[in-house]
Design brief:
This protein is mainly alpha-helical and 794 residues long. The protein has 23 helices and 2 strands. The protein has a two-stranded antiparallel ribbon. The radius of gyration is 27 Å and the shape is globular.
Length: 794
């Protein structure tokens, strides 16, 4: 794919330029190509199980093969396709739309992509593991996902791949939040942003808690499978613990999938209708309200799980209320069309089609919010139809519209409007043949690999025909894009006459490496775009390449580790070596200031004017870490409450965990928090000696804490208290283990900070590295202050 970012990254070899790139546009292209590849994988899996269901008593797939195909199709479409497809366009266009030269942290942006690819490689490799891949459904049913019922190592590989993917997404989320809040052009207020960037900001605010919150139950699943803990096999935890933790992530994930495509639809409608978005502030408020409400509806997925009737009624109400902000958004988009001079282009057709499909999906979802109706519909194909109308219809179809809309800017090439409109017809016919008849199967269970009821056969055959028609639409889509690259005519800079609407249509197609050749964009209070000229490019634009090998090498290491842990120990050793080498190389580059692509914050920074990019990034990461640790503590409270019903006796204070050791570690860790703060204060004053001394003291105290904790674990094992002794020991080991791993990460960073401080790297009074460390270390301290009373005093 030809575009401006790659023309400027330099390097002796184009392949090396792509592998080592940190330019946001190149990263966006990598995301786009990879997510579309995974879409093909997931689509082929879907076609296989649709063939199996096309008629009664079919034998194309056996039960195990069907379950594996269904599991991977669901997981890939939700996590490796839809969200990354939005991330592809966001990586490319959000920095341009806000007026930034690049993302706030270019190397972390590249790392996010390579970890995403690494996770997909590990997930696909699980196909070839002995016993096959995960077969427990995309929801990861408990206890079906336990070793007792799913002993194959492919399931553990899939869990590891999911953890890698969540780490990738968390890194990207922090980067986007800092970028949007800190790197906007002068005059670029939040409400001046196009809806796509506003939607991506809302998406990332949800992502910041949702994906770490999903990491929590996954960690418990991995420890159940690999270490023998009993979170999902004990009476105190069990399937209900998984259900609460999963759906606390699962329903916000619906809006993560939906919002990027839906907001792109709003932009396309405004541009194609020649009108500003109707009631744009109301749309932004509705987005924020929906983002908040997404956290208070999760239990509507659990109406049949035995939860209290009062709780079911409460979630019935919150589920119905969440339709209100989306109704506001849809009405605003429709009113934007009123009185407009509408041009029917391919992006506009897909935008209108997406809106229509989303309305149908939302209407069918209202039925599911009713407890009474949900009991009848929950386990049937009605829900499958509703979900796909919402996510594939509203979300993915909206992203297809966005790809067509942004394609000329990304490639500098036009596509065939005639072929695009034919694609729209095939897409809509195939989609509705595929998903609308599913509502007619409201009496057919949705988790069976075969059936004997003859009346379901004709409907399933129509659905299967629709599936292959929809697949043909995607094949046509890819053909259109390839034809555009090979034979498309040169695109003008603004093919949609959208220059007054958004910055990307005011720069060349494709954009140059640092986006804005005319200078720094600036917006007047009326929204008029002007340019602040600069005296030549900044040094970072010429004297240093936009390249770093370390994100790529990190992903090579994690891929080898992920596959090797379960299939080849020598591969694990090689992966660990690559991973350690990448981290050391990354630190060495920083120590020598070798990566000098500086992305300055020169415009609007509200509401974080007093922060810098690094401190805001660390505070954002800490908020995400709260979403990781918080659900595990919630699970601990859940299990302790359930122990009153099951008769399990929780250990009395001092009975298992010596209070003296816990208190000693509390004193050590809080003292280390003080020394970390002193190091930061000394660095701000440029006092090199005190900075080094305080950091060294923090290192010594951190090692002392870890030593005492290792001794305590050793003693517990010596007395027969292991990971799987009971639910109490499981929570103790996992919570203290997560805390110790965070502490160890800080301890490993400290030698670098000490060395840099010793060499005068923080003499100028600016020490973002030490400030970030102090914030992080304070979080580690606070987590321990929850752990200590929970296990030693209560």
């Amino acid at each position: 794919m030809s575009h401006g970012g790659n023309e400027h990254v330099g390097g002796p070899n184009p392949l090396i330029s792509w592998l080592f790139t940190t330019n946001h546009k190149n990263v966006g292209v990598l995301y786009l190509v990879t997510s579309l590849y995974f879409l093909v994988v997931a689509g082929v899996l879907a076609l296989t199980f649709r063939l199996q269901l096309s008629e009664p008593n079919n034998v194309i797939l056996g039960p195990d093969a069907y379950n594996r195909a269904m599991t991977l199709h669901g997981l890939f479409m939700l996590l490796w396709v839809t969200t990354p497809l939005g991330a592809a366009l966001a990586n490319y266009f959000v920095p341009i739309q806000i007026g930034a030269k690049d993302m706030a942290f270019p190397r972390l942006n590249a790392l996010s992509y390579w970890l995403y690819l690494s996770s997909g490689i590990v997930a696909l490799s699980s196909f070839f593991a002995p016993g096959g891949t995960a077969d427990w459904g995309w929801y990861t049913y408990q206890p079906l996902a336990s070793l007792r019922y799913s002993p194959q190592i492919g399931g553990s590989m899939m869990a590891f791949a999911l953890l890698l993917l969540l780490a990738s997404t968390t890194v990207g989320t922090v980067n986007f939040i800092v970028t949007i809040f800190r790197l906007r052009a002068p005059g670029m207020k939040i409400l001046n942003l196009p809806l796509f960037s506003l939607g991506w900001l809302a998406t990332n605010l949800i992502l910041l808690w949702a994906f770490p919150a999903f990491m929590a139950p996954l960690i418990l699943l991995v420890t159940d499978r690999l270490l023998g803990t009993v979170f999902y096999t004990s009476a105190e935890g069990g399937p209900l613990l998984w259900a609460h933790l999963f759906w606390f992530f699962g329903h916000p994930e619906v809006y993560i999938l939906l919002i990027p495509g839906l907001m792109a639809v709003g932009d396309i409608i405004a541009v194609s209708g020649r009108r500003a978005v109707y009631a744009k502030p109301a749309v932004w408020v509705a987005l924020l309200v929906a983002s908040f409400q997404s956290w208070v509806v999760w239990a509507h997925h659990m109406f049949q799980s035995g939860i209290h009737t009062g709780l079911r009624e409460a979630f019935n109400i919150t589920t119905e209320l969440i339709s209100i902000p989306f109704a506001v958004i849809v009405i605003a988009f429709l009113l934007t069309l009123v009185g407009g001079r509408i041009r029917i282009t391919t992006p506009m057709l897909f935008a209108l089609g997406s809106l229509a499909l989303f309305i149908i999906g939302g209407a069918s979802g209202v039925f599911n919010s009713s407890v009474a109706l949900n009991i009848g519909l929950h386990g049937t194909f009605w829900v499958v139809g509703h979900f796909h109308y919402t996510i594939v219809g509203g979300g993915i179809t909206g992203l297809v519209a966005a790809i067509y809309y942004f394609w000329p800017k990304m490639t500098g090439r036009l596509f065939s409007e005639t072929l695009g409109k034919i694609h729209f017809v095939v897409h809509m016919v195939g989609f509705n043949l595929l998903y609308f008849p599913m509502h007619m199967l409201f009496d057919m269970p949705r988790r069976v690999y075969t059936y004997v009821v003859e009346a379901w056969g004709p409907v399933n055959m129509v659905i299967t025909i629709g599936a292959f028609t929809f697949a043909a639409a995607w094949a046509l889509f890819f053909a259109i894009l390839f034809h555009s690259l090979a034979r498309g005519s040169k695109a003008p800079d603004d093919p949609w006459d959208a220059a007054p609407y958004s910055l990307e249509w005011n720069i060349p197609s494709p954009p140059p490496e640092f986006n804005f050749p005319h200078g720094i964009p600036s917006l007047s209070p009326t929204g008029k775009i002007s340019w602040i000229t600069t005296n030549g490019a900044s040094p970072s634009e010429h004297s240093h390449p936009h390249l770093s090998p370390w994100p790529f090498i990190v992903s090579v290491g994690t891929s080898l580790i992920g596959v090797g842990l379960f299939m080849s120990p020598p591969m694990t050793v090689l992966g660990l070596a690559a991973f350690v080498a990448a981290i050391v190389g990354w630190a060495y580059d920083d120590l020598k200031d070798r990566f000098k692509v500086v992305i300055e914050a020169i415009g609007e920074k509200w509401p974080f004017e007093r922060d810098n990019n690094f401190s805001l990034g660390m505070w954002t990461l800490v908020i995400g870490e709260v979403a990781l640790v918080g659900p595990i503590f919630s699970g601990y409270v859940f299990a302790r409450a359930n122990s009153l019903l099951t008769g399990f006796r929780w250990p009395a204070p001092g009975e298992v965990h010596p209070i003296e050791l816990g208190l000693l570690n509390t004193i050590i860790l809080t003292t280390s928090g003080l020394t970390a703060t002193l190091a930061y204060l000394a660095s701000k004053k440029g006092e090199r000696g005190r900075t080094v001394l305080s950091l060294t003291a923090t290192l010594a105290l951190g090692l002392a804490f870890l030593g005492i904790k290792a001794f305590e674990w050793w003693e517990l094992h010596a007395h027969g208290i292991t990971f799987g002794t009971d639910i109490a020991s499981s929570f103790y080991y996992v919570l203290t283990g997560i805390h110790a791993s965070h502490l160890l990460a800080g301890v490993l960073v400290l030698p670098y900070l000490i060395l840099k401080a010793h060499k005068g790297g923080y003499d100028g009074g600016k020490a973002p590295g030490i400030e970030m460390f102090a914030i992080y270390w304070g979080f580690v301290d606070i987590v321990w202050l929850f752990i200590f009373p929970s296990f030693y005093l209560l």
